[in-house]
Amino acid sequence: METDERHVVVVHAGVRVADTRRALRVLETSHPPVFYIPADDTLLRLLVRSGSTTFCEWKGVATYWSLAVADAGVSPDAAWSYESPTPGFASITGHFAFYPSRVGGCWVDGEPVRAQPGDFYGGWITDEVVGPFKGGPGSGGW
Description:
The chain is mainly β. It has strands at residues 2-4, 8-12, 15-20, 23-26, 34-38, 47-56, 60-69, 73-81, 95-98, 105-108, 111-112, 114-115, 124-125. It has one domain: Domain of unknown function (DUF427) (Metal Binding Protein, Guanine Nucleotide Exchange Factor, Chain A). Helices cover 0% and strands 46% of the residues. The strands form 3 sheets. It has a 7-stranded antiparallel sheet, with no helix packed on it. The chain has a 4-stranded antiparallel sheet with strand order 3-2-10-11, with no helix packed on it. It has a two-stranded antiparallel sheet with strand order 12-13.
C-alpha cells in the first residue's frame, strides 16, 4: 500500500463526507484499489458503528460504519475500517474505506469512480484501472 497524493473525495446527499490528499491506496489480487481515508479528513460525526464485522485473511477484522446524513436517511455499512489490523497493514489503522455503491459519489482527481461489481467488495474503478475484477458474475472461484 502507498500514500496516494491524488485528491480523493466522498460525497453523500450533497455533503462532502471525506476529502483528502493523504489516502492509502491498497491493492489486492483481482481487485481494483481501495482508498483508505484518514479519520482527520473524514466527517466522523456522520459515521455510526453498525455492529457488522467481516474477517480478511490479510488485514484481520473489519468494523463497519453506516453513514447518516440529515434528510437522506442512513446508508447501511457504507464504510469500513480496521481498528486493529494485522502488523503488515498497521498503517490503515485510523482510516476509513467507503463503498462507492453505497454513497452518492466518489472521485479521484475529479474523475468519478465506478463501483466494483458485486455487493461485498469495495474497489474503486477509474479509467486507469483495467479488469477483470472479482465480484462480477462467474468470478466467485478466483
